[in-house]
Design brief:
The chain contains eleven helices and eight strands. It is of the alpha+beta class and 346 residues long.
Length: 346
Amino acid sequence: MSSALLGLESPLLLHLASIIGVLLALVLVSRILRSPREPAATIAWLALIVFLPIIGVPLYLAFGERKLDAALRRKAVIALPEHAGKHPHPVHSLLVSLGMPASTTGNRVDFHADGRVAWQALFSLLETARRRIDIAIFILADDEVGKALLACLKQRAEQGVSVRLLLDGVGSFPLPKSRLRPLSDAGVEIAWFIPVIHRPLRGKTNLRNHRKIVIVDDTKAWTGGRNIAREYLGPDCPSDCWTDLSFTQQGPSVASYRAIFEADWCFANDRPAPDAIVLDDTADATEGRVQVVPSGPDIADDPIYAALLTASYEARQRLIAVTPYYIPDHGIQEALRLAALRGIEI
């Protein structure tokens, strides 16, 4: 009798699963058509879901979304007050209209010539900390560079400095958790941004936090494109050490990095969004002007992309771009091509 029931239930379950799959595929197709993305990507996802739904549906659910829709509503809005010193440049105006922090004056930026200089600047900055160290990093490697940073943070925590360390759940996944226990014992607060194994509503696994930010005493920042690994920096950076851009920054613009870190920290710890940070409005207007522009799956629209397009069309003399990954889409490629045809030095 049980075998007969199983024989009846199997086609029924298969039929029910097929109906659910079709309905889910229709919902995803509608979502794909309404999502802003490249036409080629849209066609590829549609074809995969329509012709191979058993593969396409789970792949899209895991990797198809670029933005943290539900999570975005829980994250802090990085909304800093307008600085008194506005700037008429069209890129600045565009970014402010997209909700980015306005530029500030009174800043100092020191670029790092190579990985060795970046290493020296990082540890010199950490040694100056008197009250607080906040770090958000994508890759914290389990090598001599990563171990040196962890040892430094443990020492500073034992000396009474408040230390918070935010690691990406995928980028720093290879780091053994045992490496972090001495830091926790010393009082370092450690959080993971969307761990590999997480609650479904906490965001998709492929949406990562690629930010590399070190903030000391809320007044100085070390940031750029370098992760904490021997490939990026070190006391004796090898000849094959990767070429990347990083810099140390101080001044009112550091408040923007603080707001970004606090938003990510609160999200990773399921805490309410923090209050907006007030910008220092007393800086010398003749000093360096800086505008900090966050980007990523938690930022509405694509402000960096919009700024690149606008800068390409507004350029009058030259365009200087630094990137480890030059994979422009048609829009950026065409904007650069037209700029070159206008005689702009690129």
